[in-house]
Structures are given as structure tokens and as C-alpha cells.
Predict the 3D structure of the following.
Amino acid sequence: MSTSPFSPPPRGAVDPNEVGRFDRLARDWWDPHGPMRALHRINPLRLVFIREALCRHFGRDPRAPFPLDGLSLLDVGCGAGLISEPMARLGAAVTGLDPAARNIEVARRHAQAAELSIDYRTDTVETVAAGGQRFEVVLAMEVVEHVPDMPAFVAACGAALAPGGLLLLATINRTLRSFALAIVGAEYVLRWLPRGTHDWDRFVTPDELRGATGAAGLSRFQTRGMMYDPLKREWGLSRDTSVNYLACAEKPGSPP
């Protein structure tokens, strides 16, 4: 989810309809009971997965006050900063990208109020990668199901990775169960998300994502499922990737 005021993004890099939809939601992004409440609910689980994966990959102590201290991190499709801010608090040097200008405006104001230093840009990962900037960590949380060309997007994320770096993603599998739960259930029955947030045809299977990361030159692809327990009303990690899942892949080379 990334338009640049400096140069136009590559053709097919972003979907203007998707950008407009999230741009209209910008002012309510930080409201835990607003249209982004589903992201607020899964965010603690996403953060656990990211922190553990990065600490394991880079040999950091997850119990340290700032376990990501000094790591350069690119948050692609950052929205208003739900992931960027916690990563900054853990010590990472964070750059956040989003194509929706209002998202970036809200993100900057929120980070300033929290006294966090985050480099927010209205830009695309394609432009950043083409400019030669490289990061030890690239995040794309709930983004690949919104882009018109998923393999090209993943390739750009891989190009933005430094050797030895780690790409982490979160998305939704394309199954009948995901249609029932992520679209019918989440958008129409429970109304966790605004109607029209997702297009089932753009959901990405783990095999498709594995193929895209491999084509981008990344290896050691792994997945973990995210499952909602209606009795406990909370999200947990699972082996079941039939609906929501997380993934990571490495760029060959030695981590710094």
C-alpha cells in the first residue's frame, strides 16, 4: 500500500481504489473501536511474532529493554503506524511507507505526540528499492492482498532487504473458509471491518507466497497461522493457515 510526491510509482504498484479507501479511514485509524478495530485486536499477536522472529534471526535477547536496537526496519503499508510505533519503542530505526497521504499525516502527528522518531513517507517500496536504500528488516503486514501484482510487490520488498535481512508478512489465505470468516463474517456479520475491505480473489495462498519469495531470491520461507478463539475472544498463533497467517523469509547473506 504505497504514491510518491517525488516520482510516480511503477505501473501496477498500487491500486488507486485501495489507496482511496484507506485514505478515507485515516482519521479513525487509532480508534480501537473504529473501522480498524480488527487490526487493533490482532496487533499484539503480530508484534509477538515479529519480535520473536527478529530476535531469533539476529541473535537478540527478546527480554532486553530494546531488543531491536539499531536494526533498520521498513514498514511497508504502515497505515497510521500501528506496527511502526511499537517497533520504534523496541529500538529499531523505523521508516514507514504508505500511499495514502492522510495516513502518513496521522502517523506523523501520532508519533510526534508519543515523542517517537519515525521516518514516515508517502512513497512506495518499489521507489525506495530502486533508489538503492536497503533495510535489515522489511515488514508488509496485511498488504499483499491489496496490491494488483503480488509477485512484483514481494520482489520489490526483497530488493529493499539488505543481505542477511528478514522479510515478514501477514495476509489471508484464499480458501472457502477465509471467504466465510474474513469477508462474510468479519465484514457483514460481525462488522469488524468496513464492507468491501477485502477482495477474495486477491487473497494469497501460502504456496503462492512461497513461490513469490523464492522468485525474489529469498529462502527459508516459514508460516504461522493466526486463529480467533470466540470463547476467549482473543487471537492466538496456530498451525492452521487456512484464514489469517504470518510468514517470513530470509535474504541470503550474513546478518549484521
Remarks:
- Residues 37-58 form the longest helix (22 residues).
- The chain has one domain: 16-250.
- Residues 1-12 have pLDDT under 50 and may be disordered.
